[in-house]
Amino acid sequence: MDAYIYDSVRTPRGIGKKTGSLSQVSPVQLVTTLLSALKERNNLNTSYVEDLVLGCVTQAGEQGGNIAKVAAQVADYGDHLAAVSLNRYCASGLEAVNQAAARVRSGWSDLIIAGGVESMSRVPMGIDGSAWVMEPDAAFGKFVPQGISADLIATKYGYSRNDVDSFAVASQNRANAAWAKNAFKKSIIPVTDVNGMEILAIDEYIRANTTLEALGKLNPSFEKMGEMLFNQTALDTYIEIERIKHVHHAGNSSGLVDGAALMLIGSKEIGEKLGLTPRAIIKMGSIIGSEPLIMLEGPTPATKKALKKAGMTASDIDLWEVNEAFAVVPMRLMENMKIDHSIVNVNGGAIAMGHPLGATGCMILGTALDELEQQDKSTALATLCVGGGMGIATIIERV
Amino acid sequence: MQHIKYTIDTDGIAFITWDVANSPVNIMNAETISEFFATTDKAINDATVKGIVINSAKRDFIAGGDLKWFLNFDGTKQDCYDMLAKTHQNMRQMELSSKPIVAAISGLALGGGLEIALACNHRIMLNHPANRIGLVECSVGLFPGAGGTQRFLRLLGPRKTIEYITQSRKLTAEQALKDTLVNQICSPEDDINALAKDWILQNPEVQQPWDYKRFVVPGTPNGIGQVSGFTEFYSVSNAMAYKTTHGNMPHIKNVLSAIYHGSSTGIDKALEVETRYFVDTLFTKETKNIIRAAFIFIGDAAKGKAKPKGFENTTYKKVGVIGAGMMGAGIAYVSAKAGLDVVLKDVSMEGAEKGKSYSSKIEHDRIAKGRSTEDKSKLLLDKIQPTASVEDLKDCDLIIEAVFENLDLKYKVTQETEALIADAVIYASNTSTLPITALAKASKKPEKFIGLHFFSPVDKMPLVEVIVGKKTSDETVAAAIDYVTKIKKVPIVVNDGRGFFTSRVFGKFVNEGIKMLAEGIPPAVIENVAKKIGMPVGPLAISDEVTLKLMLDIMNESPDLTEFEKELKDTIDTIVNKHGRVSKKSGKGFYEYPEGGKKYLWEEWPIIFEQQTEYDKEEVGKRLLFAMVIDSYKCLDSGVLREPRDADIGSILGLGFPIHTGGVMSYIDYIGAQEFKNYAAGLAKKYGERFQLPDSLLERIENAGNKRVFYKN
User: Fold this and answer.
1) Most Cβ neighbours (<10 Å): which of A245, A378, B199, B611?
2) 3-state DSSP of B85-127
3) B503-639+642-704 is classed CATH 1.10.1040.50
C-alpha cells in the first residue's frame, strides 16, 4: 500500500517578533486558515479525514494542551476528527508527515492531514522549559546550545566564516528569485483577517539585498556565551579541537518566524473515492539519533538510512531540501553526500525565509514537491537536523 | 550534659547554650548533636517554656560539623541516611513547634552551625567585622546535609542558593541581613540575648515561611520555565559548574541536583532529596579524597604539623629579604601582611623601591575591592623598608635571600650577609632548583642555613617547601616552619635533592607533554585532556610560562639524565634552537602569542611531528598523571619527602594536581592500587622504564591486598 500526497499548503512566514505581521494571528488561526484552504481547494468531504497530526515544538500557552485538537474543533471539520500534537523538535512537521504516511501504508488509516505550526512571536522558543538544560543529570557536561554545536561542526570540519556567509547570501538570492518567479504560488495561502482582508501573503523575513560584505560585519552570536559558559563542555568531549571558531550569526542562521504547513495524505483508494489527484508518493521516511552535544549531524545518517531502505542512492534524488538551521548544516550534508549545491535548496531556505520550528519539516517537503512539478523532475528528499541529536529524512516521488 | 547548657529564666525563656567541652570551638558531632536535640526536645515539651534562645558560650556560635568523622564514617548508606533523617526530624520538630526559637549568632556560624540557625524562627547576628555566616561544605568536597540546601533555597531562591553554596560564600552580618538569611542585626554594644528574648515575647506564636500552605520557592515558576528565567538559570548554573570542575567533582553535581529537585517539592520531601544526594556524595572516593587533602592534610600542615617536636615557638620581628624581584617583593609583602617588619634589599635603591611598589599595587587593588582600608594599608606598607645597603640587614631576625638562581651570586650574598647578622639568625634561600647543601657551602653556619621555596605569585600561592640541607638543624627547621605558618602559608618539609619535590615532579608533567607532542599526538588533545583530568593548565601552556629555554638549561646542567631524558633533551634542543620556540615572553612558544589577541597553538606542530589520528584519550591523561605520581613516589622512596601526605599536599598546592584524586599518593588508591600497577606496567612496556614502578611500591601494593596502600581512609 502506498501513501499519497494529495495536496500541500502553507502560510507565508511572518517575522517572529511582536513587530511581525503574524504576531496578530494566533497559532490556532494559522492552522485553521490552512484547514479551510484544504477543504475548499479539494472540495473535500471532511468527514473522511480521520486525524490531524500536527508538529509543534513549544507546546505551552496557546500552543499547549494539544493545539491540534483545538484547531480541529475551530476548523469545523466535524466532531469525528481526531487530532494529536507531537514534538520531535525541529523535525516535528516532517515527523507528522512520516507518521501519517506510515499509518496509511500500514492500512490503519485512509486519510490524514499532517503538518505543523509554530508562532514564535507569540509563544517564544524555550518558554516551555526543559529538563534537557535544567536537570543536572541531563545537562551537566552534556548540553550546549545549538549555536555552539553549529560552530563546533564548522570548526571541526574547517568551514570558514566566508564559507558559511557565502552560503547565506546564496540562500537569500535564491529565495528572492523564487518569489520573483512565484515559485511558491501553488502552496501559499495568504493569511487573512476576520473580514477576509489580507494580513500577509509573502515571506516577510527575506532580506533581498544581502551581500557578503554586509554579513561580514555581523558579530558571531555565540562567542560570548561560549567562552563564558559552554565551550569548555564542548572541548572536553571534542578534545582534538583547540578552540571553537564562532562563525554563525543572525545572518547565516535560520530566522525566527511564524507559520504553518499542512499536507493531505491518503491511500490510493480514498483519493479515487473523493476525486483527489495524487501528486506524489511518500516513498520512505527515516529517523535516527546521534551524539547530542554536537547535535546537528543527524541529516547525513538519516538520509543514508532512508535511501538504503528505499533501495536508492543519492544520485537517484533530483532535488534536495535540507533545513538551513545553520549554514553549516546543509553544507555538511552536501559534502558528505557529494551532492551539488545546484540541486539543494534551489528556492532558498530558512536562512532567508525563516524556520517556524514545528512547521518547517512539512513546509520544505511541500517546497520540494512544488519544485519537482515546476522542473518536471521525479524524486526529492527533505531532511532536517534535530535538537538533542537526531536526524529525519523523507523521500517523495511524483506520480 | 557535657556540651550543652540549659537554663530557664523567670519569664519562661529557655536558653540552650553550646559550650563544647575541651574544645576552643563548638563542633558538631554525634555526641554534641544528640545532647543538643535532647535539650531542644525537653524545652519544646516543657509547658512552662514560652520560647527558646539558642546561643553559644564561646566566641563563635557553631563552627560546623566534624569532617574527620565524615571521612572515617564506616556505616552503610542506610545508616548514613537514617542518621541524617533523624537530624531533619529534630530540626522539623523545632520548626513545627509553635514556640518561637531564636538563634543568637554571636560569632562565626558555618556549615552545620548555620543550618541549626536556619531551622530557628528568627536569627539575630552580632555585627562584628570578623563575624560571618556561610554554608562552606563545598570547599571540602561535601555540601550542606542538615537542611541547608533546602532552607537556603526557600529563603533565597535557586540563583543565590547555588552561588552561595557552590562557592562556599561567607557573609557578614550586613550582607546576611540584606539577603534575609538573618532577620536582625545586633550592634556590638547591645546584648544579643536580650534582643532574642524581646523578639520571643513579641512573637509568642510562629510558623516557618515554608510551612504556610501557599508557600512557593522564590524564583521558581509555576509550570512555565522561561517566564521566570528558571530554565535559563539552570542551564547557566550547570554550564558554569561544569566549566570549573570538568565534571570531576561529584559533590558539585550532586548539590545542583539536590537544589534542582528540592525546588519542586515541599520541605519534608525536599529534605529527603538533600539526604539522598548527600549520602551518595559522602560515599564517593572523590569526596573522601577532598576531605582528607583539603581539611585534614592541608589543614594540619597549615598549623605547622610538620614542625619537629620539642622546640618552642619562634617569634619574628624583622625579616630581611634580599633581592627585590618578583619573588623577593612577594615575600616582603606576605611578611609585612603578617605584621612583620621587612627590610627589602636590592642592589640599587631604585630596585628596592620597585620591589616595594609590588606591595603598593596589591594593597591598592584590595582597597578598591573593599578588602582593606587606607589606614590599614598604610600601616602595612610602612613596615617595608626598601634599601640598597646590606648594613640595614644587621638587626633582622630572619634572612630570606631571593636573588637570581646563580650559584656564585648566591655564595657572594651569603657571605656578605652572614658577616653582619647575629649568629642565631636563620639564613634561608629561596631557590626552586639549586641544592641547599651546595649553597650552604658558602655559609659559616650551615646548621642555620635552610631553603624556603616560595611559589609565584607569592601572595596567591599557599605552599612553601621548607628545604632541609645536609647540615640544617632540626631547630632551624622548626623555626622556619614557625615563620611559614606565621605568614599563613602551608609548609611541607622536603629533603635536599635536585629540584626538591615540586619542581622535579612538575618537570615530569611537562616532559610527558612534550614527549607526546613529539610522538605526534595533536597538541590540542594534550592540552584539553590535561584540563579535563583536572590540571589547571596544559603542559605545553605552562611550559611557555616557565620558558623552555630554562628547562633546557636545567637539563644541560643535570649530571644524571636518564636515556629518556637525554632523548627528550635533544627534542627540546631542536624545538628551542632550530624552530625558535622558547616561551610566552618571546612571543613564540608551543603557542603563538599575537599582540592584543588570544594565544593559540602554533600551526606548524602538525607539520613538524607527523600527527597520529588514532590515540587513546584515557592514556594521554594517565601518562601525564602517572609520570607525576611515580616520580613523587620515588621522592618518598629516596627520602626527599618524609611522608606521603607531604606529597599529596605539595602536589595539590604546588602543582595544581587535581584535588579530587587526593593528591599524587592518594591517586594510587583512588584508581585502585592493582589497576594502577597494571596500567603502569602497560605504560612501561609501551613507553619505557620511567613508568616502571619501584620495587618498594610493588611490594606495598602487594602487601596492601585489597586495602588502601597509603591511608586508612
Assistant:
1) B199
2) HHHHHHHHHHHHCCCCEEEEECCCEECHHHHHHHCCCEEEEEC
3) yes
